[in-house]
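#lab-general

N.A. 3:47 PM
ok so I finally got the sequence cleaned up, no stray characters, all 364 residues accounted for. can someone with queue access submit it? mine expired

B.Y. 3:52 PM
send it over

N.A. 3:53 PM
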Amino acid sequence: MKYLTEYRDPRLARALLDEIAATVTRPWTIMEICGGQTHAIMRHGLDQLLPDAITLVHGPGCPVCVTPLETIDRALAIATRPEVIFTSYGDMLRVPGSADDLLRVKSRGGDVRMVYSPLEAIRLARENSDREVVFLAVGFETTAPGNAMALKQAVDTGLTNYSQLSSQVLVPAAMAAILAAPDNRVQGFLAAGHVCTVMGIREYLPLAERFGVPIVPTGFEPVDILRGILQTVRMLERGEHGVVNQYGRAVRDDGNSAARAVMHDVYAVCDRKWRGLGMIPRSGLDVREELAAFDAGKKFRVTDIVPAEPEVCIAGQILRGLKKPPECPAFGTDCTPMHPLGATMVSSEGACAAYHSYARKGLS
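B.Y. 4:20 PM
back already:
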């Protein structure tokens, strides 16, 4: 536990909080881009311990939350087909589509199965040669290498009854969209450390230069996050911009070249719609055209579905850092983890779920 407990040391955390308080002289708004960081901030009460001048807002760092409604509705349409075994990570099963979710499809007889790895879906395809096995491939750059490896294995072994419904997204493009928006309030970013372990930090350099913001990759424990905030505040106070790696024990400048190589063997960069953010150019990964036989959206012809978002849900504004969950009129009443209206409440990394779990009823 040494390498965990030292990053939860309350004395180190208190010293960092004191240093942040001594450094800040004016209001700053900082976005943590990762849902795991959001939950750590809520769980450890960091948002309540920081000086009032620092506002933390919660970005589109939850892959479940940003998966567009069209993809959920496509998944539902495929999962109802009798010849299909539909597989997904567990946190996608309760994400509401326009009128349903995957658990309800399962309760009505659909063969929907939770898996912990895309390789489980590969195994199911091998064991059920008379069925079509579909894997819902969502996530950021962290899950993409594993999902790509599974699809590559299917291609290499001629497993033609396996396909993926891909909704994988790329973080830097979303950060650029947030910063370019006319209503943007974000002045600095805590970047997601696990994404940077795959991609490295070099792709953030043009963003920092273009928008004149500090971007600080950091980890998920209290000391990690506070160090990231301190570095961001120092740069903001000095009027500096750039990328400073505060997660050196896991992140290298060039990331993981082998992981990136398998991603690019299987997927091509594409324009992608994000829930709450709309269409963002070159922000997603889709199955390459030459592998279309393994693309479930094309295989089952479910590309023309028109979704219907609930009007009361403000998840889009929350994902852009414009509002916080308690500002939603449905928060904690019509929308709860047991009966979610939006993905930000159902996901284990969603900002609304974090506020609900850790009893943040105010706007702290």
